[in-house]
Design a protein that fits this description.
The chain is of the alpha+beta class and 139 residues long. It is built from three helices and seven strands, in the order αβββαββαββ. The longest helix has 10 residues.
């Protein structure tokens, strides 16, 4: 089960950085997201022809970061994530459009980024304390 502090941080933010890889190295894109809490999955909308989507389809193991920057080091928060890129289900598309109804007017498809592992840093907790999440594989 994912710690509520991590879930709260995800709910308080709306923009993630998605990292994929190609022959030249790492490629990064910023995406607005909705979150499927039941499946611990980020939902993004993007054009199938965009570079980050094409790379994620080719190599579906992706990296994600969400960061809250602050000049005061003790207020820094962030999440590092390993996720699996997938096509979104019909239910997930409904979740996305309930958060961003205007996005129906924009070209693109909804994709799912299913969290496999996460590390949460909140310097208010303690400077060296991290919270982790690891998806349990079905037996």
């Amino acid at each position: 089960m994912m710690d509520l502090k991590i879930l709260d941080f995800i709910r308080q933010n709306h923009l993630l950085s998605l990292s994929t890889i190609d022959d030249d190295g790492v490629y990064v894109a910023n995406c607005y997201y909705a979150f499927d809490t039941e499946n611990l999955t980020f939902l993004i909308k993007s054009d199938k022809t965009s570079k980050h989507i094409q790379l994620a389809q080719k190599s579906p193991k992706i990296g994600i970061t969400i960061a809250k920057d602050h000049q005061n080091l003790s207020l820094l928060k962030g999440l590092q994530i390993k996720a699996l890129f997938k096509d979104a289900s019909l239910m997930q598309k409904e979740i996305y459009y309930s958060h961003f109804p205007y996005a129906k007017l924009i070209k693109g498809d909804i994709f799912a980024l299913e969290i496999q592992w996460a590390k949460y840093t909140d310097n208010k907790l303690l400077l060296n304390q991290k919270l982790f999440y690891q998806k349990i594989s079905p037996s």
